[in-house]
Amino acid sequence: MSVDSSFGKLPDHLLIEIFIRVPVSEWAQISCVKKQWANLFRGEFLWQAALATTFPLANQAKRWPGPIPRGLSKRRFAALYVSKHIFSLDGEIDEIVGHTYLFLKEQLELSTMPPSSSILHGTIIDQFIACGKSRDMAHDLASQIWLAVLDNLEENEHTFQILKRLAQEGDVFLPYPYSRSFKVQWRVFEKLFTDFRDCFDHVDYYDVLACAKTKFQPIPSTWLGY
């Protein structure tokens, strides 16, 4: 992107008004053009303006109790964007759903040794219940978030190791709604045996397959054969 000399000299408040009207998909590229622009995207004012413009009702939301914090404007914008574009909640944009998605995705992607799935799942359930969701709604939303995160993890060695660890976790009896759904457990194995099949060595494959056989019967034929 070339920067016209007059455009490059615009004051910050005008640049912010321009940038927040550019598609979000281009923001990363814009922030790389000039140091001044990068600083705007690192600061709070641009994200406050983006929140007010894109999600005008966000400023009416009160802070919530629970283990997952709301964060500053950039985090809130990301959470609302996720809620709007990844989850279908009858047209409703639920900010806390976006925050829990970001929380879980970061725990799985950025941690070299993330907490067990039961701890992560319990944290999400506690957050929804603290925000007034029913037990059934908390369990349903948590399952949707797990499935969305699993489907959006990068396909790399770290993700393979995380999925393998999730698959090999021992079954722990937890009362509803703290038990993970069947769909979530199935998706972990499905991704391992489809998207990450080439990552297995002989021993790992049969270890994970044995875990799958203890959880599901029958095993899909597409999972068989190393």
From TrEMBL:
- The protein's superkingdom reads Eukaryota
Q: What is this protein's name?
A: Uncharacterized protein LOC110744477 isoform X4
Q: Which Pfam families match?
A: F-box-like
Signal sequence annotation? none
Annotated organism of origin: Prunus avium
Ranges for domain F-box = 4-50
